[in-house]
Write a structure and sequence with these properties.
The complex is a heterodimer of chains A (about 280) and B (about 270). By secondary structure, chain A is α/β, with parallel strands linked by helices. Chain A has helices at about 50-55, 80-85, 105-115, 120-135, 150-160, 180-195, 210-215, 230-235, 240-255, 260-275, and strands at about 10-20, 25-35, 40-45, 65-70, 75, 90-95, 170, 200-205, 215-220, 225-230. In chain A, strands 6-7-8-3-9-10 form a six-stranded mixed sheet, with helices on both faces. Chain A has a four-stranded antiparallel sheet with strand order 2-1-4-5, with helices on one face. Chain B has one domain. Chain B has helices at about 10-45, 55-65, 70-95, 100-140, 140-150, 155-190, 195-205, 210-235, 240-270. The chains are: A alpha/beta (about 280), B mainly alpha (about 270).
Chain lengths: ~280, ~270
Amino acid sequence: MTMPLSELEPIIEVIDLTTHYGSRKILNGISLTVHKGEVMVIMGGSGSGKSTLLRHLIGLEHPSSGNIKLLGQDIRNMTEHDMTQLYRKVGVAFQSGALFSSMTVGENIMLPLREHTKLDQKTMEIMARLKLEVVNLAGFEDLMPSELSGGMLKRAAFARAVIMDPVLLFCDEPSAGLDPVVSSSLDELILRLKDALDMTIVVVTHELESAFRIADRITVLDKGDILTIGTVDDVRASDNRRIQDLLNRHFEEEILDPDAYLARLTGESEALFSQV
Amino acid sequence: MLSPDRPFPLFLQKIESLGRISTKWVNSLGFGTSLLYQSVFWICWGSRRKQQVRLEAIVSQMMEVGILALPIVSLVSITIGLMLAIQGIDALKDFGAEHQVTYGVALSVVREFAPLITGILIAGRSGSAFAARLSTMMINNEIDALRVMGINPVRFLVVPSLVAMMIMVPLLTLWADIVALLGAGLYITTALGISMGTYIGQTIAYLGTADALHGLGKSFVFGILITLVGVINGSSVTGGAEGVGHVTTRAVVHSILALILADLLIVFLLTR
């Protein structure tokens, strides 16, 4: 990302987005822009509104007020037919993978091609195999999703999300629930997809290590508000107390100094046992 | 004066609860109507939108709903036919009219028992499976995944099942008619000492096209109801596996209730 942000084409524009669940305000006047070719990480703790923001960005929920523009189109005023056309340029990898359990991995990956193109079976199979190769799952196309591990499911979901070569990819908690090795391999996969397919990628995560590894810019959310939007260095250097709380609680102690973290946990548990 | 500190009076609580239940039912009714409209839309105009309903999905559902249900429908139908024959002869014997049993059995099987029993069997077998499948897909974000792939879930999931039900429930009912009447014939021919040919001849003579259409028409409506009730319940799932179990049970109960009420309404409107 050497060009100034102002010169890059905006792919996502969120303007004053507010949403409520009943009387509870979940997102409070969110505004952000994601530019072409960047990896934007939306980060925050549980209940910060990051998953709700993602659901709004992909058109699964409608805001109480505000606008969302994807690829220059205001999705609030789009018909279902127009949304269908837009979705062909967008890929989404869900946290759970969301592969269809009644289909094989290969059939799952070919589904968007089958529904939106007139390609013959052989070509679709080749394309599915190529995408599986990209996510290091070559040879797994005949397995059922129930036969895959958690990390493999997520990689297969990535393969399905990019089968139509989207210009924009959304990833919901790609590293959640995975061990550090698998998590790291998924981060590398995201970076590889960005470079190889020149995608704009939005990642929602609460994993700080993963966010810092893949992000060009980070949006930090807390209780429905944006605390900051900036590069990894900007976020690390922020003097905002809530950001520092988030970083200290989840990052410095757990990741940078795992021994100290374990020692504190062990010390605390020993203290608890001694009270019994 | 009502205040937040004072409990709501019991009668107001009851009225509120009644209002909430009514709203829920009206909501479901509206959702069902909308589903039916959308389904008709996708069947008629899907190909114009380049999202045609896949024939292989319909055939697969027809296998699931119809062909695989043949053994249980046959078993229940032959049993019902036998029971009706036994009960009918026993009841008519007191009036010396046991030879009229063929007429009673033929009409009751074709107009009432075959469509209703088939409908209830399919509601328990396929309606519940459909609700379970849909609710599991909801929980696993599979429906959301369909949407963001630009695939309309009604077109992709509901329409194949609906079309399969509209075709296979009447066909299964026709099969149930034949099996139940043959089952009844086995007992009647033995008990009354008439030949199977005579029994079949009497049955054909008694039954009119209107009787057959009455039963088949009802089963067509039942097929639609089973699908819609399955979808409405499946898509209202909350929670995890427990929620799936809950909506599956509810789908069966609501389907059977819907079939019986629809049956009553149709009978009331057509046979008065």
